[in-house]
Each structure stands twice: as C-alpha cells, then as structure tokens.
Write a structure and sequence with these properties.
Layout (H helix, E strand, L loop, with lengths): L5 E7 L3 E9 L6 E10 L3 E2 L2 E2 L2 H19 L5 E6 L5 E10 L9 H11 L8 E13 L2 E4 L9 E12 H13 L3 E7 H9 L2 H6 L1 E6 L4 E7 L2 E8 L3 H12 L3 H11 L12 E3 L10 E3 H25 L10 E4 L8 H9 L3 E3 L18 H17 L9 H6 L1 H7 L3
Parallel strand pairs: 1-6, 6-11, 12-17, 17-18
Antiparallel strand pairs: 1-2, 2-3, 4-5, 7-10, 8-9, 8-10, 12-13, 13-14, 15-16
Helix pairs in contact: 1-3, 4-10, 6-7, 6-8, 8-9
Bound molecules: adenosine-5'-triphosphate and magnesium ion (MG).
Adenosine-5'-triphosphate binds next to helix 6 and helix 7.
Length: 412
C-alpha cells in the first residue's frame, strides 16, 4: 500500500498568512488540497517582521485553521516570502568538461550552476533560488538539459533570486517558533506563477503581476523559463492609505470601503452618488463621494501598471508578450482592473486563478491563494524529485544527497 505524503505551503504575506495542506497523488504527482487556513498578518510590514510575538501567533492561527480542516497536524512547510527586499539578477557560469569522452554529467551541472553563483553578493543578501534558464554546450545554445551530451565547454545562463538575509531569517525564526520545520524558502512571486500559469503561456511569453498588500511582484516568463523578476514597492496598502488620506477616514474604514464599494472605473459612477460610512464604521460617520473614491483607486492602480510597464520596458518586452498579463494577489479583485491593465499595458489581461491542483476546497479558487497553492505545487515537485521518481536522470541516491541544491537549481 502506498504511503500518503502530506505537504504544506505557508504564504507569509504582509496582509494575510495563508496555509494550504495537501496530499500528493503518487500517480499524477499533483497536490490534492485537504485543508486551508488564513489569519491576518499584523506583525509584518512590507515583508519585514515588525512584531515577533504577533507574527508567531498569526502563523499559529493560520496553521491551526488548516490543520482543523485537514484533520492532520502540519509538521513542516514550504515557506513563501514576499516583500521589497526580494531582488533578482541574471548570471553566467562556465566550466570545462574534462572527463574521458567529454560526456556531460549531473556533477558537471552542479559545478556549472555553482560557477554561476560565484558573483559578488553583499553579505546581508541570501540566494533563495537559482534557476538555470538554458545551457550552452560549446557553440550550441538554448539547451534545456545537457546531461549525456558531449562537449568541452559548458555554460549556463541562470536567474538568481535573492532576499535580505536578516529579513528572511526573522520570518524563518517566527515559523520555527510556531512549531513547524521549514522544507525550503521560496520567493512568493515564483510560487504564484507556478499556480496560475500553463506551460504554454510560459513558452509564449507572459507576465505575472501579483498585487499584494505591501508590494507588487512581477515575473516574466518566455521560452518556458523565467526571464525577469522584480518587486515594485506599491501595493493594495497604498491604495488604502490614499483613500484614508483623500477621504479623511481611518485606515480600517478605508480598506472596508475599498473592498465594498471600490472599482477602477470612475466614468461608470454617477457624480452625485454618496456612500454613508456610518453603515461601515462607528468612527467614521461622514458621507463620501463614490466618484472621488473610485478616482483615488484608479489613480493608484494606474501608477502600479505604469511601473509594471517600466519593468517590461527594461527587458524590451513592453507590449510584446503574446500570452499577456496574468493578475494575482488579493488586490486584483477590484472591479474594472482587467480593462485598466489592458489599456495601460497594451496586452491581453486575465485574472490568474490557481490551477494545477486537485481537491474540493471552494475558497482557494481565488487569486489571493495563488502563492500558497504554488508553494504546494513546487513542494510536490521537490518531494517527487527527492524520491527519485520524476526528474530525468536524477538517481535516488543523488536525489537524496543533493536534494536541496537540485531543488533550488532546477525550478521553476
Ligand atoms: N476584494 C478586494 N478588492 C480590492 N482589494 C482587495 C480586495 N481584497 C483584498 N484586497 C486588498 O489586497 C491587499 C492584500 O493582498 P494579499 O492578501 O494578496 O497580500 P499579502 O499576500 O498578504 O501581501 P504581500 O504579498 O504584499 O506580502 C490588501 O491591500 C487588501 O486591501
Ligand atoms: Mg502575497
């Protein structure tokens, strides 16, 4: 009888902490979601822990919530981290192949990827992911997996994602103190892409825009692999702050009116329409103009998309991605966002609902859960590799011994 394996994804965001628990289907290697948990994230601001105690409590609440639904305890998690401290760059590594017959082995792949890491990274930064985008064997470019090929020079083009070491360490400490081990730390932006993109979209060229609370993560894929990642320091929290300042309300009321009455289309709102805040708040009793609310929201979302456009221009992909834009994160649930993004970015736009998983949990069919589900999907892939079942050529011994490094290197 095959043993059931449990996995969990823990998305520690700046607004919410989301946990997803799943089992792995041995045949399809697809995660089957059996539990979901959510808690507010009151101890984190823009990806940084500002209150350890609160963060531990929030993580515990989220985990317990998911455990209750799953009927299983969570012992370890794939941890997703987000925030403006996440950065990425491209790097090259080159090695000589000097075995008899010059046949490239897995050890050579290890060596060449290690060579790509031999770049000056400040002491306070930590590599979170190394993604080999493509290999070159002698003059032959664009190779996805060179093991077994013959050559004398092996080169890799790698994408390296880093985070601020102390920031990541503080989140890890809170997770450990909440009583669970960490399988691996994964940048949230890479996890959400795994949940919302199809292989075809990644091949054609696509950008995932994850609008969270503290920031907006952007990741561009082309020819099946990641081309660019960046974090823009503007997110849903800025929209809320603008409303609070513009309409002179408390932050809580501003967030509530944004979610209840917000949209990105001022032209659809009658000039004279008013919202009586006393129905939403005991502190803010005034009446506000809905048109003004929507204008404030539209202005900030337009700015976010302008900054996304600038990111695309940096890599010469402005208006140039055939599979367009996929929007995820809770802040994309604002009405009118698709048209606004389409106009601003001049590309087809869709909302990215998490896919590539099984299980009948209604509430995760929501772009807000893309990161948590993505963590489960990546975790499933790592685990299968560690059992030596799905990764081409990676033997069981190697898979166990080199699991961490390989998992880091070969994804997404
Ligand atoms: N229905 C909605 N309409 C508009 N905005 C929304 C809606 N629901 C949530 N938001 C906004 O989404 C933001 C939170 O998004 P999300 O939960 O994805 O963030 P997070 O993952 O916790 O944060 P981050 O990824 O930045 O660390 C908040 O600013 C919130 O106001
Ligand atoms: Mg998030």
């Amino acid at each position: 009888m095959s043993k059931v394996r449990f996995l969990a994804g823990l998305d520690v965001g700046s607004s919410k902490i989301r946990t997803v628990v799943g089992t792995i289907d041995e045949k399809t290697q697809t995660p089957n979601v059996i539990g979901v948990g959510i808690a507010p994230s009151t101890g984190i601001r823009k990806g940084q822990v500002i209150d350890v105690e609160e963060t531990i409590n929030n993580i515990t609440t989220s985990l317990e919530d998911a455990e209750r639904m799953a009927g299983e305890p969570v012992h370890h998690v794939f941890l997703g981290v987000s925030g403006n401290h996440i950065e990425a760059f491209n790097s090259k590594g080159v090695i000589a192949i000097s075995h008899p017959g010059n046949e490239i082995t897995e050890e050579d792949l290890d060596r060449v990827v290690e060579a790509a890491q031999a770049v000056a990274i400040p002491n306070n930064r930590r590599i979170l992911r190394i993604i080999p985008k493509s290999f070159t064997v002698d003059e032959q470019k664009g190779i996805k997996y060179p093991v077994g090929m013959t050559g004398i020079r092996l080169e890799v083009d790698a994408h390296i994602v880093t985070g601020m070491a102390p920031t990541v360490r503080n989140i890890e400490k809170c997770v450990l103190q909440a009583g669970v081990d960490i399988d691996d730390v994964i940048p949230a932006v890479l996890a959400s892409s795994e949940a919302v993109l199809s292989k075809r979209q990644k091949e054609l060229g696509v950008v995932v825009v994850d609008i969270g609370s503290g920031g907006t993560s952007v990741s561009v894929f082309e020819e099946g692999t990641v081309l660019h990642t960046a974090v823009i320091p503007v997110g849903g929290e800025n929209v809320t702050n603008d409303i609070a300042i513009g309409l002179k309300t408390s932050i809580d009321t501003a967030d509530k009116i944004k979610i209840e009455y917000g949209s990105c289309v001022p032209t659809e709102v009658n000039d004279r329409e008013v919202i009586d805040l006393s129905s939403l708040s005991k502190i803010d009793m005034q009446k506000i103009s809905k048109r003004q609310l929507v204008e404030i929201i539209e202005a900030r979302y337009s700015e976010i998309f302008m900054l996304v456009k600038e990111e695309l221009a940096k890599i010469h992909r402005d208006g140039m991605l055939p599979a367009g834009v996929v929007l995820t994160g809770a802040a994309v649930k604002i009405p009118g966002i698709i048209d606004l993004a389409r106009e601003a970015l001049n590309l087809p736009v869709q909302i990215g609902f998490p896919q590539n998983f099984e299980g009948v949990v209604d509430k995760i069919e929501d772009p807000a859960y893309a990161t948590a589900i993505g963590l489960l999907i990546l975790g499933t892939r790592f685990e299968s590799r560690s059992f030596g079942s799905s990764f081409k050529g990676l033997g069981i011994k190697k898979a166990f011994s080199g699991f961490k490094t390989w998992a880091k290197q070969l994804l997404p």
